[in-house]
Design goal:
The protein folds into two domains: 148 residues, Alpha-Beta Complex (Aspartate Aminotransferase, domain 1); 232 residues, Type I PLP-dependent aspartate aminotransferase-like (Major domain) (Aspartate Aminotransferase, domain 2, 3-Layer(aba) Sandwich). It is 36% helix and 13% strand. It is built from ten helices and twelve strands. Helix 2 packs parallel to helix 6, helix 7 packs parallel to helix 10 and helix 9 crosses helix 10.
Length: 399
């Protein structure tokens, strides 16, 4: 290794100020305090004028922070990003062929739903293994495109949207839950964009955001799929978009407390400089981890190409021969042990890789994370690895 085994075995003296590096729900923004949330609308109907105005304000504020085009529509919908994206797929797919690009668990879920639940027959699924991107050049301008902007469970993001034609005739569906507020999105290339409150802004789970281009609105108003749609997926009536949904009239009852938490996150985001500042914080967090990865021999990025490295969902794999010779079950045990030690030290919570992803670590680097905390976390990863390695070698000698 680039540092001595003795140094690796020394327990670090500095701990992150906050050990919450979960990829969802994510850490609250700096300065967050439950007592600072407005509670005047708790216990009131979300349809009353003042509570409804707070819903509308959250929509407007989100759109402004993201520089969403003026002719786009934005709504709060149920069931987090999953609900928002499912609403879009179920409501709009089927008019033409569909190309789905898969390289991690959630894009795989969307492909499975489109194939086995929606039963779209004219369907192409372009798939790559964890760590890679599929061949994005296989898109066609007359076919709907479905993809995730940033693979939350693989750490692989699209580097840009150059692969989408500026003359795209069909719709482009983008699950952007761990990219929104962290990466620049070219809305000219997109038609449906979804995210949740709980990711980069660190607000509460259970609520999704659905952003639609004029072309997506036109699809909703001109195409009605033959399949039945549940109430929480219906945003049209008599062939017209239900405008009230985009003005704070939610499809089901929202949590007014969670709404105030979102307002707190949006206010914080604006106070630090808006979208550019949020992106800069994510980039700085990535740099803190990348610097350590580059000088540490036992660890590497799960993504195989530098330009596809995520700045939010940072996925790492152990590449030492001592770890790679283990069975998959033994590797899971080893990662679990290291994560348990980190949690016992109040250094890092919930940083094991996603359950269906390759075995390793996943460290969140969204805007609410402090890069100084990531700087302090890295020596602890060295320490738990060295501790595990020493125990593994000692156990081998005992045999």
């Amino acid at each position: 290794m680039n540092v001595s085994a003795k140094r690796l075995c020394e327990k670090p003296t500095l701990r992150p100020a906050d050990p919450r590096f979960s990829s969802g729900p994510c850490k609250k923004h700096p300065g967050w305090n439950l007592s600072s949330l407005s509670v005047g609308n708790l216990g009131r109907s979300h349809r009353a004028s003042i509570p409804k105005s707070r819903l509308q304000e959250a929509i407007s504020h989100s759109a402004e922070l993201l520089n969403l085009p003026d002719d786009w529509q934005l709504a709060i919908v149920p069931a987090s990003d999953t609900g928002a994206f499912e609403l879009a797929l179920w409501s709009m797919l089927g008019k033409c062929g569909v190309d789905v690009f898969v390289w991690e668990s959630f894009s795989s879920d969307w492909a499975d739903d489109i194939q086995n639940q929606l039963k779209i027959e004219d369907l192409n699924i372009y798939q790559a293994n964890y760590g890679d991107l599929p061949d994005l050049s296989q898109t066609k301008i007359d076919r709907d495109i479905v993809f995730v902007y940033n693979g939350t469970t693989s750490g692989v993001r699209v580097p840009n949207l150059d692969w989408i034609s500026p003359n795209q005739k069909s719709l482009v569906f983008c699950d952007a839950t761990s990219a929104v507020f962290a990466m620049e999105l070219d809305y000219k290339k997109l038609d449906v964009v979804t995210w949740s409150w709980q990711k980069v802004l660190g607000s509460e789970g259970g609520f999704g955001m659905l952003a639609l281009s004029p072309k997506a609105i036109e699809r909703l108003e001109s195409y009605q799929p033959s399949r039945p749609l549940p109430k929480i997926f219906r945003i049209t009536k008599n062939g017209k978009i239900t405008q009230s949904v985009f003005k704070g009239a939610t499809l089901n009852t929202p949590s007014m407390l969670a709404l105030e938490d979102l307002h707190s996150a949006l206010k914080w985001a604006e106070s630090i400089g808006g979208l550019s500042a949020l992106i800069e914080r994510c980039n700085n967090n990535f740099k803190a981890v990348d610097s350590w990865v580059r000088q540490t021999e036992w660890i590497d990025w799960l993504p195989n190409r530098t330009e596809t490295l995520s700045t939010t969902s940072m996925c790492l794999k152990i590449i030492s021969k001592e770890f790679l010779i283990l069975s998959e079950e033994q590797q899971k045990i080893a990662i679990g042990l290291m994560c348990r030690w980190l949690e016992e030290e109040d250094v890092a919570y919930d940083i094991a890789a996603y359950r269906s992803a390759p075995i390793g670590f996943r460290v969140w680097g969204g805007a609410t994370i402090e890069s100084s905390d990531l700087d302090k976390l890295m020596p602890w990863l060295d320490w738990v690895y060295a501790r595990w390695l020493n125990e593994e070698l000692n156990a081998g000698e005992a045999l």
